[in-house]
Each structure stands twice: as C-alpha cells, then as structure tokens.
Design a protein that fits this description.
alpha/beta, single chain, five-stranded mixed β-barrel, five-stranded parallel beta sheet, globular, Rossmann fold, binds iron/sulfur cluster, OB fold (Dihydrolipoamide Acetyltransferase, E2P), 12 helices
C-alpha cells in the first residue's frame, strides 16, 4: 500500500448522487487520500450507485461487477446501497455497502480498509489528536447535542439535536488514544444512553467487522481495547441493564454516572427529564445486586421552581435508600432562555442554600459509609500523580476531577500504572491504601 492511498470513483445517477460523491471526495482529500482516474491506479474503488429505475439498478450492478473485476477492492454507496442483500447476492466480494447521504459511513469504511495517511511533517496534529488531559486518560466524545428539552437547560438550543458519531469512527479514535498511552477512556456526551438513535443505529466497520452505532455494541467493542472504560451521562433507559454483563466481565468499569437531578415525580415532570418515569430505586437495587462493587455517581438540583418541603424531604429519603456513592448538588439557577424560568413558585435563595447544605450533609454520611465498607478490600488504582513519599491515584469508582482520590504510600510507581492496593482507611471522599504486590 502506498503512503497516500489512492481512491477511484465511479459515480452514477442524478446530481444529488454527484454532490454526495463530491462530499466524500472532499473529505478524503482533506485527510490526505489521493484520487485516481483509473482502476489500475486505485487502491480502492468507490461505486456510488443509482437505484431509481430498473435500468439504473442494472447499470449499477454492472458497474460494481466491472470495478470488482478490474480492481477487486470495492466499496458501494448511494441509492442502491439500501438494497444490500441484492448487491451481496450479485457481488458477495464487495467490502462495504452504505446507503445514500451516508458520507460518514463511506469514509469510515474506507478508513477501515485503507487507514488515512499520517505524515508527521505535514500533519501538525498527532494521530490521536490534541489532548488537554494527562497522557494516561482521555475523554472520548461519542455524540454532540441532545434530543431532550429539560426545562432548566439550554444545551439543545446551543448545540442542537443529538448527532451521534458512527461507532467505527469512535472506535478508531479510541484505538489511537490507546496506542498513544491512554489507560482510561471516559465516554462523554449529553445523553450516552441515546447514542445512535439519530442515525437509526447505523452500522459501520471496525476491525473487519460491522458494529452497530448503539451504546451496548459500542461498549462491547471498547471493552476489547484492554483499558479502563468509564461511562458518563447515562440515563436509566431499560437498555442500560445490558451494560451490567460487560461490567461483570470487567470489560467496562463498574461505574455509572447517572444525572438523576431529583427524585420527586412531580418535579421530574416539571423538569421534563428523560426517563423520569423509570422506577429508579428498584433499578439501582437490581444493578447493585448484579454488580455489587458498582459505583453510582449522580447530580441533583435543589430549589427548582415549585420544589416544596415535601418534595425535598422525598429526595432526602430517596437518597438515604439509594445510597449513591458520589453526589454533586447544584442550587437551581435561572439560566437565560431556559423554559423553567417561566414556572411559578421560585424558591428563595436562602432556602436553596439551606436545602443544599441539608442534602450535602445527608450525602456525606452516605458516602462515608460506602467508603468505610471498602476498608480491608483489595482494589485497583490508576496512578495520577507521584509525590515525594506517596502516589495519588483513583479507584475504579473515581472519575478524574469530580470524584475522590486514593492515597498510596511509597513512590515506586509511574503515572498511568494500574496497581492493586489494600484499603486501610477511608474519609468522606478519599481512600488511603497500601500497594498489594
Ligand atoms: S439536561 Fe436535559 S436537555 Fe440538557 S443536555 Fe441533559 S438531557 Fe439534554
């Protein structure tokens, strides 16, 4: 394979198909691919098909056959791509098939077959991209935007509706990060559980196989990379239960960041929260029954308009029963443009403050108890920082920046090492441990 892979194009059909071809070409050229004008000079041929009339379908099948005979490496896209079975029946050796307007899917299939060139003198950006996090962990964004309309939030107005990245693209980025030394991937989005809904769970290629753009399938594939995979912003939709078996197999960290925001049904409806109807306490108990070492982190809002003392008491009792491991709490803020600002019965600032303190006090006792239960246990710790006579790390239950730390005596570690340690002591947020060699 040449260092700059050459792609040949056969573009059939209407001007819309031609524009699709132009878009695919532009993307590929921007990534450093070359184009070729004949079959012999191409490393791979893309056939953009038409499926409008029978004659056009026939012509498309013939064009695919010709490209296979003349070159052998063929990716099919365009209107006839919606009839993958027909194409496979006629030409079983095509490498990938995508439908019309699936630019990302075509490019993703090409990446899989002929990885984009990387020239360190031409590309100022390393293959894994520019990262602002330490070398041993990285955030991996799987989608942008959000389809919900929570009344306190303006993110959908700012960032638009959900746009999921294809699983193949996410996995390739994850692989580059792992190659560059990353030991922990933090999966982020606005709504991780909704991943892939917008692209109808489109299929894409990774490691010579087809992966569905859906949370469980993505996590299953990420679990093959052999690094810590931590999920953030998971809403408790039913399919979240599918993740538990991956946690049991240690493919996924036993950690879920679920932004519950409140427990009162009435307030959750006023907040227009996704999965507000979920029977969350039952779910939490069942998750823990299946994965006893599961850490659950969440965030809550106190002082949302209309929150009564009863609602707040309900939340405190819910927290006592749920025994979440990590909790962040915000006092409601009237963000400009948020629908909740129109709601009646705003909660006075001093009452928000009082509720915030009460919630934090309740939660601190819960967190302390949860951490005390770890004393004497052996845990895994990823090392974040080395100091004179100690190392600072995090357990599987601690995300960077937002959760606690594990303080380890000794300094015979390297940043990014994952070591086994025995927990000796626990505070409300942090653990103290010694290395168990
Ligand atoms: S708070 Fe609600 S609307 Fe805002 S990003 Fe999260 S799920 Fe979407």
């Amino acid at each position: 394979m040449s260092s700059n892979p050459r792609i040949g194009f056969v573009s059939l059909g209407c001007p819309k198909a031609l524009v699709d071809t132009e878009r695919i070409l532009s993307q590929l050229q921007a990534e450093g691919y070359s184009t070729a004008s004949d079959y012999q000079g191409s490393d791979l041929v893309v056939v953009n098909t038409c499926g409008f009339l029978d004659s056009a379908r026939e012509e498309s099948l013939e064009a695919i056959g010709e490209a296979l005979t003349e070159n052998g490496q063929v990716v099919v896209t365009g209107c006839l791509g919606t009839e993958a079975e027909l194409i496979r029946a006629a030409h079983p050796n095509v490498l990938a098939i995508t439908g019309p307007h699936q630019y990302e899917a075509v490019v993703s299939a090409i990446h899989e077959i002929l990885p984009p060139p990387h020239d360190p003198f031409m590309n100022l950006i390393p293959p894994q991209g520019i990262k602002l996090t330490p070398k041993h962990y990285a955030y991996l964004k799987i989608s942008e935007g959000c389809n919900h309309q929570c009344s306190f939030c303006i993110i959908p107005q700012l960032r638009g509706n959900l746009v999921s990245r294809l699983a193949g693209d996410v996995l390739r980025e994850a692989e580059e990060l792992v190659k560059s030394g990353v030991q922990e991937l933090l999966i982020i989005s606005q709504d991780t559980s909704a991943y892939g809904v917008d692209v109808h769970y489109a299929k894409s290629q990774w490691r010579n196989r087809t992966i569905t753009t859906r949370m469980t399938e993505l996590c299953t594939a990420l679990g093959e990379l052999g690094v810590w995979i931590r999920l953030h912003y998971v809403y408790p939709y039913p399919h979240v239960d599918e993740l538990l078996s991956l946690m049991k197999e240690q493919k996924l960290l036993p950690y879920l960041d679920v932004p519950f925001q409140h427990a009162s049904d009435r307030l959750l409806r006023a907040m227009k929260r996704p999965a507000a109807e979920a029977r969350t306490l039952e779910r939490i108990h069942e998750w823990r029954r299946q994965v006893p070492n599961l850490t659950i982190r969440s965030t809550f809002i106190v002082g949302f308009p209309g929150e009564t003392e009863n609602d707040f008491e309900f939340l405190l009792n819910w927290l006592k029963e749920a025994e979440l491991d990590r909790v962040g709490c915000f006092r409601y803020e009237a963000v400009d443009g948020a629908a909740a600002n129109q709601l009646e019965n705003a909660v006075p600032e001093e009452l928000k403050e009082e509720r915030w303190h009460r919630l934090m006090e309740v939660q601190q006792k819960i967190s302390t108890k949860r951490l005390q239960e770890k004393i004497g246990q052996e845990i895994q710790v990823i090392i974040d920082e080395i100091r004179e006579n100690e190392a600072i790390g995090r357990s599987e239950g601690d995300a960077p920046e937002i959760d606690g730390k594990v303080l380890l005596t000794g300094n015979a570690f390297n940043v990014g090492d994952i070591v086994r340690a025995r927990v000796e002591k626990a505070g409300p947020y942090d653990l103290w441990a010694t290395c168990a060699l």
